[in-house]
Amino acid sequence: MIPDAELQFGMKCIKLMLFVANFMFVLIGFLLLSIGLTIKTIYSDFDHFLVDHYYDAAKLAIALGIIIFFVAFFGCIGAVKQSVCLINIYALFLFLILILEVAVSIVASSMRYNLTTTVRREMRESMEFYNSYTNYVWDATQYNLHCCGVDGPEDWEQYNSASYNLIPVPRLLLDTRFDDVGNSSANATVVIQTANNTMNVAYNVPTTCCYNEECKNQNSVYTDGCLRGITFIVNECALLLGIGAICIAFIQVLGIIFANLLAKSVRRLKTQIEVARSERRQHIYEQLANAGNAKEKVSPVLYTPTSSEA
C-alpha cells in the first residue's frame, strides 16, 4: 500500500508540471500574437500594394495567439480540478491548434508564390491614383525605403507631369571637354542648358524620391525601385511566419504528448489512492470482524452450588 503523503506529493508534482506547460503555451501564444500584429502593422504601410490574402497568415497567427490563452486557462482548470477528462480535452485543443499552425505555415509559404508580379501590378495601378488617395502610401514607402517608383524613377514619366505633388528634376548631361593636347578633362561632367537658359527635365517625381527636397539633378533621386524593397519585406515576413509556425508546432506536439502523460499519471495516481483507501477500509473491517469473533469465542463461566447452598 502506497502512503497517502507520497500520493499527495505525486499529485502536487503533476499539477506543477501542468502549470509550467501552460505558462510555456501562454508565452507561445504571446509570441504568435506579437508576430501577427507586427507583420500586420508592417503590411499596413504598403496596404495599397498588397492583395487581401497576404494578410491571411498574420490574421491566423493573431487568432491562434488568442485561442492559446484560453486553452492554457482551460488546462489550468483541469490541473486544479485534477480531472482526467478536462486534461484530455486540453490535449485535444492542442491538437486542433497544431493543425491551425500547420495551416499558417502553408499560407505563409503560398504568399511567396508569384509575389513580384502581383505587387508590381498593384503598384502600377495605385500610381494612377497618386493625387487622390494613394499619395500618402507612396510617399511613406519611398521615404522609408529610400526608393523611387516601382522599378525606378522612370516609372513616374508615365504619370501626369502637371501634378502638384510632382516636381521636375533637371537632367544631368555629360559634356566631355578636351584640353589643348586632346586629353579629356578630369571634370568632364557639366550641366548643359538649353537655348532659353533652362535645364532639360529628367523626371517628374514626388519629393520623397529625392535625397532632399531640392532635387538639384537626377543624381539627387533614388535610383532603386520600391518593388524590390517591398517584396523583400513580404518574403522575410512570410519566412518568419512559416518557420515560426513550424517551430511552435513542434513544441505543440511535445505539449500534446506531455498532456497525455499527465492525464495517465493523474488516472494512475487516482487509482492508487482509491486502492489505498479500499485497502484501508478492508483492514478496518477485518479488525472489527476479528474483534467480534474474539468476543463470541469467550468461554462461559459455570456456576457450581456449594454444599451449604444445597
Fraction of residues in H or I helices: 55-70%
Strand tally is 2
Low-confidence stretches: 173-199
| Mean residue pLDDT | 73
Shape: rod-shaped
| Widest β-sheet, arrangement of strands | 1-2
Judged by helices, strands and strand pairing, the structural class is mainly alpha
Largest sheet: 2 strands, antiparallel
Give an overview in words.
By secondary structure, this protein is mainly alpha-helical. It folds into two domains: 4-116 and 230-278, no CATH class; 153-223, no CATH class. It has six helices and two strands; from the N terminus they run αααααββα. The protein has helices at residues 4-44, 56-81, 84-110, 115-127, 130-145, 226-296, and strands at 166-170, 201-206. The chain has a two-stranded antiparallel ribbon with strand order 1-2. The longest helix is centred in the last third of the chain and has 71 residues, at 226-296. It is rod-shaped and about 150 Å long. It starts with a helix and ends in a 14-residue tail after the last helix. The chain crosses the membrane at residues 16-37, 57-80, 87-108, 238-263. It is found in: Membrane. Its main location: membrane. Keywords: Membrane, Transmembrane, Transmembrane helix. InterPro entries: Tetraspanin/Peripherin, Tetraspanin_animals, Tetraspanin_EC2_sf.
Strand and helix layout:
Blueprint: H1 4-44, H2 56-81, H3 84-110, H4 115-127, H5 130-145, E1 166-170, E2 201-206, H6 226-296
